[in-house]
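Researcher: I'm preparing a figure for a lab meeting and need a structural model of a single chain. I don't have an experimental structure, so a prediction will have to do for now. The sequence is pasted below. Please return the structure as tokens so I can convert it later.
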Amino acid sequence: MDTNTVLILLAIGIGAGFISGLVGVGGGVIIVPALVLFLGLTQQQAQGTRTALFLIPLSFALAAWTYHKSGNIQWPYVFVMLVTFMAGSFFGSKVAISIDQAIVKKVFGGFLLLIALKLILGK
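Model: Understood. Here is the structure written out token by token.
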């Protein structure tokens, strides 16, 4: 894994954790598209890697085992993003509880809209 990949993984982890803590959105909404768009993983690899990312916080999941058996988990990516995701979610939750609920709702809605448009338009 090269330095650029590690930096991208760190950014994905902290960003996904922050957004998750801020608006309560699941990490998959952020992590899966980011792994596909920025690191070129297949959809299955991104989903498997994201599922494995939650092994420690959510205990071992059967879905992660299924992805692992089929070779669709990028374990080095999981370990790099794990710590940054937890840190980002902590700080995102701090921001979320310190700002007005209406702002959090708008950020959440806007983020989902941007992701939806990106997926629909394919750009």
